[in-house]
Amino acid sequence: MIYILYTAVILLLVGCDQLLKSWTVHQLELGQSAAFLPGFMQLTRVHNYGAAWSSFSGKTALLVVVTAALMIAVAYLLIRRIVRHPLGIAAALLILGGGVGNIIDRIAHGYVVDMFDLLLFDYPVFNLADCFVVVGVILGAVYYLWFYEKYDARKKSDASDADGDK
Fold first, then answer.
1. Judging by beta carbons within 10 Å of its beta carbon (0-12, 13-18, 19+), is residue 129 exposed, middle or buried?
2. For residue 52, what are the domain limits?
3. Which residues are catalytic?
4. Would 62 be classed as within a structural domain?
5. Residue 165 forms part of a structural domain
6. Which pTM was predicted?
7. How many domains is the chain built from?
8. Each residue's pLDDT tens digit in the chain (166 positions)?
């Protein structure tokens, strides 16, 4: 039952990301901007052929493989119930939702549609999936540093030696 909830949350996150990307593609020409939060952020349609800061630009296959491997690793943590604390689960779901959202773009188009353009300082244009991943990683770090040992770490008494004896 819990996996149905996890799947629903991931699908909701991916759906929001893909809906915003679709709106951007249908409302803005490539490079065109529109007001969003005046003085703070505008929407600018950009196609990113790489990863963060356009690193690995043009290496779509590599980015798909690396992203898929990371998504499998995060999903494994949830499926095997290695992460059980709500903060860790939220972090994993955000990372999965963002990763899946961007991998869909890379597979379907060969690039990721970005649209959030900060006006306060020079920063690369990014998308909602990127926000999910960044927030998920921050929450994951907080979870690991302050909650993992207390709630989810295997205790020495739970571990078995090589012969299977406790």
1. buried
2. 2-151
3. 114, 130
4. yes
5. no
6. 0.88
7. 1
8. 899 999 999 999 999 999 999 999 999 999 999 999 999 999 999 999 887 766 777 778 899 999 999 999 999 999 999 999 999 999 999 999 999 999 999 999 999 999 999 999 999 999 999 999 999 999 999 999 999 998 888 877 655 544 555 4
